[in-house]
């Protein structure tokens, strides 16, 4: 059985309200909170097994990262993921699966080959694991099966880009409740 780590950074007591409980609740100051059905995905990263950034897509409108910053984030995440596997007190730990901070959540999925897929999204996004697995399926279908793609190299596949955009859009539409 594989185990993973979930890291919770200092965060004010934030409760995630789900559609099952009506989506309404009281915040720490007594204010009424409404569940946001459309989770914002800020960015998507794909890192090869060596820690190299092979794909980056920014979905946020504010604070776009330049190329060097995205390379640094990917390298830092790869290193933290590897260190967490070695330092975890749990045997068979596969690394960090979720990092929660005050202003974002980082969800990660690692394939059996060591390729890591991670999204940076708004806090409280609950469906990102399934989305990452779907992105992995798109990666296997449109990148790995492409005869012109070289392993461990940056992804430049138009069909992958198109299907990824559709998957992200479908995910957002599904969360809006149509």
UniProtKB/TrEMBL annotation:
Originating organism: Aristolochia fimbriata (White veined hardy Dutchman's pipe vine)
Protein name, as recorded: Trafficking protein particle complex subunit
Superkingdom of this protein's organism: Eukaryota
Oligomeric and partner information: Part of the multisubunit transport protein particle (TRAPP) complex.
Keyword NADP: no
Annotated localization: Endoplasmic reticulum; Golgi apparatus, cis-Golgi network; Golgi apparatus
Keywords tagged on the record: Endoplasmic reticulum, ER-Golgi transport, Golgi apparatus, Transport
Pfam families in UniProt: Sybindin
Similarity comment text for this entry: Belongs to the TRAPP small subunits family. TRAPPC4 subfamily.
Main location group: endoplasmic reticulum
CC terms in the record's Gene Ontology section: endoplasmic reticulum; Golgi apparatus; TRAPP complex
GO biological process: endoplasmic reticulum to Golgi vesicle-mediated transport
């Amino acid at each position: 059985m594989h185990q993973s780590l979930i890291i919770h950074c200092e965060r004010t007591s934030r409760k995630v309200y789900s559609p099952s409980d009506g989506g309404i609740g009281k915040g720490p100051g007594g204010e009424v909170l409404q569940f946001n059905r459309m989770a914002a995905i800020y960015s998507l990263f794909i890192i090869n097994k060596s820690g190299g950034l092979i794909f980056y897509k920014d979905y946020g409108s504010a604070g776009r990262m330049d190329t060097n910053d995205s390379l640094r984030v990917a390298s830092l995440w790869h290193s933290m993921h590897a260190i967490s596997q070695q330092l975890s007190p749990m045997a068979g730990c596969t690394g960090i699966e979720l990092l929660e901070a005050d202003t974002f959540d980082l969800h990660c999925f690692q394939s059996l080959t060591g390729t890591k897929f991670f999204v940076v999204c708004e806090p409280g996004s609950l469906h990102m694991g399934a989305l990452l697995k779907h992105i992995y399926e798109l990666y296997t279908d449109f990148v790995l099966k492409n005869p012109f793609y070289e392993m461990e190299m940056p992804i430049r596949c138009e069909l992958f880009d198109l299907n990824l955009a559709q998957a992200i859009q479908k995910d957002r539409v599904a969360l809006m409740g149509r």
